Amino acid sequence: MIQKIRDSNFRIILLTREYGKISCWHKTKNCGYDTGDIINISIERIGTINTIKYVDGIMSISGKDWDYNGIISFLELIVLLGKYIPESMPHPAIFDDYSNLLTIIQNWKTLEPHHFILLKIRILKIIWILNPKEIESSPILRYIHNNIRTTSIDTLMLSKKLDDETLEKLKRTLAISMENLN
Q1: C-alpha span between 70 and 56 (Å, rounded)
Q2: Distance between CA atoms of 2 and 72, rounded to whole angstroms?
Q3: Per residue in 66-82, pLDDT tens?
Q4: Quick check: 15 pLDDT over 80?
Q5: Residue 149's closest CA among 164, 178, 127?
Q6: What percent of the chain has pLDDT over 90?
Q7: Residue 163, Cα to own-chain centre: how many angstroms?
Q8: pTM of the full predicted structure?
């Protein structure tokens, strides 16, 4: 997420493996990378202000030939990470999952929306805000809930599409969990 604060400075929010979600400052809006890219970054901290000193790309999602649903699902995932991950609270598992997801995306044309729903459920469970009320009513959903953190991202992304009723319950669970935080 990029916000223009002053004419000469932009606030950029980054998800880092070591420090969680942090804010930093950059002199220009364009540092050569896009939302969702994985970058190697050097930050200078003076007092309470982080300033970007060096940026180098590691993995980029640009140039992917995605369909509309793939783009929307990916952007919804980025919004979820930006909105619900607490500032300065490291979650290396979420960063590693995201990094592994980008590797998978590089090799596949697109992922299906149900893959992103499962990934969102996983993220909300990791940060302890998943509301399991809907899950208790279904053996399939209980199985997903109980195994979502221990299943590898590769296996999760290979999962077959769930039936419409199960998908709707998962979407409701996501909505209820995120609504409680707003």
Answers
A1: 26
A2: 19
A3: 777 777 888 888 888 88
A4: yes
A5: 127
A6: 4
A7: 24
A8: 0.78
Cα dist from 9 to 23, 40, 58, 89, whole Å = 12, 20, 24, 25
pLDDT tens for each residue of 103-140: 887 776 567 888 889 998 988 888 888 877 777 778 88
- With beta carbons less than 8 A apart as the criterion, state whether 141 and 166 touch: yes
Closest of 101, 61, 108, 82 to residue 14, by C-alpha: 82
Residues 16 and 22: beta-carbon distance below 8 Å: yes
Convert 24-81 into a string of H (helix), E (strand) and C (coil): EEECCCCCCCCCCCEEEEEEEEECCEEEEEEEEEEECCCCCCCCHHHHHHHHHHHHHH
Q: How many CA atoms lie within 13 A of 133 on its CB side?
A: 10
3-state secondary structure 115-172: HHHHHHHHHHHHCCCCCCCCHHHCHHHHHHHHHCCCCCHHHHHCCCCCCHHHHHHHHH
Q: Which two tokens stand for residue 124?
A: 């909300």
Q: Which pLDDT does position 2 carry in this prediction?
A: 46
- 3-class DSSP assignment, residue 96: helix
